[in-house]
Amino acid sequence: MKSSPSLSILLVDDHAVVRMGYGMLLGQMDTIAKIIEAENSESAYRLYVTEQPDLVIMDLSLPGAGGLATIRKIVKRDADARILVFSVHDEPIYIKRAMDSGAKGYITKSCSPERLLEALQKVSENDTYIQPELAQKLLIQQFNHHQTESITDQLTAREFEVFLLVAQGNSTQATGKHLHLSAKTIANYVSLIKNKLGVTTDVELAHLAYNCGILPSSN
User: Quick one: pLDDT band at residue 93, thresholds 50, 70, 90?
Assistant: First the structure.
C-alpha cells in the first residue's frame, strides 16, 4: 500500500454500466486518485500485475476463471492484496468461500452507497469488513459449518459456482449464460460435480444443498 492518501482502485465487473456507475461514485471520494477497469478474470489479473492497485473491488460472476479463482490467483501472487467483493450473491457459503479465498471484505450490490464507501475505507486500511446483514447470516448458519465444509471443500471454485446455480434450479443453458460458459461445458461440470458428491440427479444436488444449509429451505 502507498503511504499517500490517494488510492488506486481496480474495479472488476463484466457489465460496463455497473463499472460506470460505481466508477462515478468512487470518483467522488477525495482519497481515490485512479480507477482502473477490468471486465473479466484474465484482464483483472493482468491489470493487477501491471498496475499494482492499492485495492480491488471485484464481482464474483466473471467471464473466464471466475471471481473466486481470480481472488486466489491474485492473493497467491501478492499475499497483501486487498480485495473487496461486491456481488449479487448474499448466501453465506459464497461469503465464506470468498473470504477463504483471500478477500478482505464482502458486500452485496444492493447495499447503499454509504455502505460501499464504509467497506472501501475499512479494506483500504487492511481491516476485514462484511456487510452487517451478511455477517448475521453467517452467524446463524454456524451450526451447519462442518457438514457444509466437508462437501464444498471437494469442489473447485468454478465447480462450486456451477453446483450452487444448478441446485437453485437453473438449467444448463441458464447456468452457462450466467457464468459465460457454453452449455456443453456446464454439462461436463455438472457430471463431474455429481461424481464427486455421490449423487445422480439435479434434484439430489438441490436436496444436498438444502440439507447442508448451503441454500435456505423453501418451506
Answer: confident
Q: How confident is the model at residue 160 (pLDDT cuts 50, 70, 90)?
A: confident
Write phi, then psi, for 198 (nearest 5 degrees).
75, 35
| Cα distances (angstroms) measured from residue 149 to each of 93, 120, 129, 160, 213 | 9, 29, 22, 12, 11
Question: Position 56: which residue type?
Answer: V
Q: What is the length of the chain?
A: 219
All three cell numbers of 26: 468512487
Nearest to 70 by CA among 96, 93, 37, 48: 48
* Domains defined for the chain, CATH in brackets: 7-138 (3.40.50.2300), 154-211 (1.10.10.10)
In 3D space, the residue among 78, 14, 24 whose CA is nearest the CA of residue 51 turns out to be 78
Has this prediction a pTM greater than 0.90? no
Q: What is the mean pLDDT of residues 119-124?
A: 91
For 86, the 3-state DSSP assignment is strand
Residue 107 makes CB contacts below 8 A (sequence gap 6+) with: 84, 85, 86, 87, 115, 116, 119, 129, 130, 131, 134
